[in-house]
Fold each of these.
Amino acid sequence: MPVPQNIPSCAGAQADGTLILPLQNLVEGVLLRRYKRFLADVELPDGQVVTAHCPNTGPMTGVLHPGGRVRLRHDPRPERKLAWTWEQAMVADRDGSPCWVGVNTALPNRLVRATIEAGCLEPWLGPIGSIRAEVAYGQGRRSRIDLLLSPAAEASDPRPIYLEVKNTTWSRGDLALFPDTVTERGQKHLRELMAVGPEARGLLVPCLSRADVTRFAPGDSADPRYGELFRQALAAGVEVLPLRYRFSAEAVTWIGVAELVPQEL
């Protein structure tokens, strides 16, 4: 589908970033426990304990802190099994100040797409004419790329862009790391991005869902094979564009591109 026009624009960016996604109905609470991967018990300010959907199946390294502050989205529609969804977790940044982290793994694709539609990534991608989601590709067309970008007619590089998004919340100081566990699926995605060239551009976009990081590296200590494939992909021409986002109770803003570090230090 064509890139829509009624979206935030980087041309009107504020000093603290570009508004990408307004948020509403977020309620703060205290995390009591996370269990069965998809469930979390949270105590609300009035003392009520609710069970929220945890939209993150990973280990949530560095952001899973029972007793810590979290934000939930309240959506009590009757077709939902749970009225609450865990959206953000508060951590201390390297200076000890509070930093809110986006933990909902369903959100990064929306954020990256909205950032492209706002024109923020044109210096790296060129002008984009249309965006398609979940397009079949890869060996036997058994995989689906997160976003398939078609350059606009005036683009200097007419090749399509196969864009894979990776939600990134693990950090060490100002260095964001992905993955935080062994990911055979992530390894497969790197191989498939390498295979799209040179007829197309392969692009990996780590979505850095916390504002306290300024650099990105593959998580070699968590998945050494992923780190090896990551560097092979760079050598093969796969592009990596780590995008930084700030989360608040009211909005998610894009705050720029992080420095790429090819190997975890």
Note: The chain has four helices and 18 strands.
Amino acid sequence: MQYVWFIWSLIILALWGVVYLMKKDSRREMLKMSWITMPFGLTEPLFVPEYWHPPSLFDLAIKTGFDIESLIFSFSIGGIGTVLYNLIFKRKYVEIPHSERKHERHRLHLYILFVPAVVFLVLALFTPLNHIYCGIAAMFLGGMATLYCRPDLKTKIWISGFLFTALYFVYFGSILPFYPNYVELFWNLENLSDILVAGIPIEELLFAFTFGMYWSGLYEHLYWKKLMKPLAIS
């Protein structure tokens, strides 16, 4: 099982490549958000071994808490999470006019971008919660805060949560038929809810849902973009 996590990371990277090839008009956005998301893979020591302890290349995860796979995984989901909704619903980005940026609801624009980081730090430092729950709560509240500034993203944020969860369910389940004991062996289920959905820890699906919610609107929030409505067919 030494290479399962590495294979898993390559599967999601291959999926990223497929989306990148299919969504030609969003490649720049995918790359930007993938590079922005990739450093979050360096947070792996917060989750190893308290959340899980997977075998990794060169045994880096066990020896240091860091691993190469987490960087590949973070890079991949960052780009996919950004454009998944647009890919399915054929939406494109347009610039938000400067006049619209002066609206009262945008006064907290910069502060709202830091909501997930603040929530995560507060929960991680002042509660006994496993860090996976801190991350789930942080992204959920980050998504809710985004809606204050960007109510136009309401549909995209909620639907993207479900879309990314469905995608993640298939992705996570791709390995389980070959390694059915993998979750039992390398997730600390006794420290979690111990609820499995088709063999997948519920925490993984909650992570997918909240990640899909928050990341789907992050590009628009960071770069002052909005979605162009599809043209009506006459």
Note: The mean pLDDT is 91.
Amino acid sequence: MMRFDGQNPDEIALKLAHIAWEAGRVLRGMESAFLDKRIKGDGTPTTAADLAAEELIIQRLDEAWSGVPVVAEETSSSTQTDEYFFLVDPLDGTGDFIHGTGEYSVNIALIRGDRPMAAVVAAPAMGTIWIAGETARTSALPAGETGFDWREAKVRPAPEKDLVALVSRRHGDIATEACLSVLSIGTRRMTSSALKFCLIASGEADVYVRCGPTMEWDTAAGDHILTCAGGSVVGPGGNPLTYGHEDKGYRNGPFAAIGDLTLAPRLDLPVSASAA
């Protein structure tokens, strides 16, 4: 089994970028097709596009790093982890994919121990991709054989007032509103999927709070990109999120994604049963 010997995190992230780009092309090709949507046991939708993208990603990961476990939303959501493992959401924002907003993403993260070490978030319909190994970078998605044009992704200092908060288009709750109420929010921007982490990483927003349920494959890639861009994703008590919690069904507790670390002490995230 390959243990990533001789590969630095930035090289791994570049490989993940090509895999996500390829999966994104599959998704773009299925956007206008009739999708047989079904509702999973957890109440979330899935489509043939989710399954097609996941199958391709798992195949490409196995070709590059044979034998490394892949925990993926659709077909491998109960896979056991190892020292190294991948977390994959082949289509984060399925509802937006179905409704044609374009705000969906492909998320892949390599985890070492309990934290990400390389990651990609690709937004195929928006034509943008973010990666991080040791550094966070972003590029337009290539239209042909031109290749990526990487530039650094970096958070911005939080303004004294009028913070930009990213809120979910389809998820809201009282606890989240209570956390945001302690901050000087000037703008609330509705954005879906892991794009919220990446917009903060690119200096376009300041905070994203989520107290409702999420899964590890929803957050791991965006968490790593934002962290490498100078921000942080913290749970109750200000601790970083950790990954590989098979005993919790790979479910996250409440968290806040922030660009400026000075915002962290002002947030009071509730402690949920899944975070305990």
Note: DSSP finds six helices and 14 strands in the chain.
Amino acid sequence: MSGGEGREAISQRQLPLDLRLRDTSRFVGFYPGGNLLARDAVEALAVGAGMTESQILLHGPPGTGKTHLLQAACHQGHERGEPVGYLPLAEVADAPPLTVLDGLERARLVALDDLDSVVGQGDWDEALFGLLNRLRDGGCRVLLAATHAPEGLGSRLPDLTSRLAWGPVFRMQIPEEADLKRILAQRAVLRGLELPEAVAEYLLRHYRRDLVALLELLDRLDLAALAEQRRLTIPFVRDQLARS
């Protein structure tokens, strides 16, 4: 998204819900693997159950499920009738931060994704610091996601680094091969798709072991199989990979 498109999206974005949430990003569709504690904590915060802290930060490399959990929490809050806001900061990093963040304190649940895209920029640091203070004062539940832990984000404002670590901080684990196979199988079931184990193993041997890329590939294979009235077999997958 270009800067101009980002600003247009901001002006049109209406709280309480950013409608770009992926429908597949639900807690039921999240295979936790080594991230069970993080999943349970985010789900508890999403419904406000038994939480002594109102903020959670997830950090780790792409493909560890950070965005999935943030969006799942927003789906949960929205379905409970709460005003929620999900903001992918990478898409709006070139826009004025006060414009982007304006009004978020009216939500009961706010999820800020891709913090790395903006933290370290002077105007953004000040704006985020102010927003987190307002959200806390207003009793809003907050979810944050970044590639690095708060102290590794490079903020020029020490107080912001402190605010980002106000609540529990979870380091998300990269899925192991067995986890990737289970996640692919789970996504296939959600799509009503039959994914034989041999095909899943073929994908892991011949494609990038990046969860985001694998799930996008599975979605493309599902559409291609539907269009050609084919099943997911190794020859079919091999042919599709050769075309890409």
Note: The longest strand covers residues 141-146.
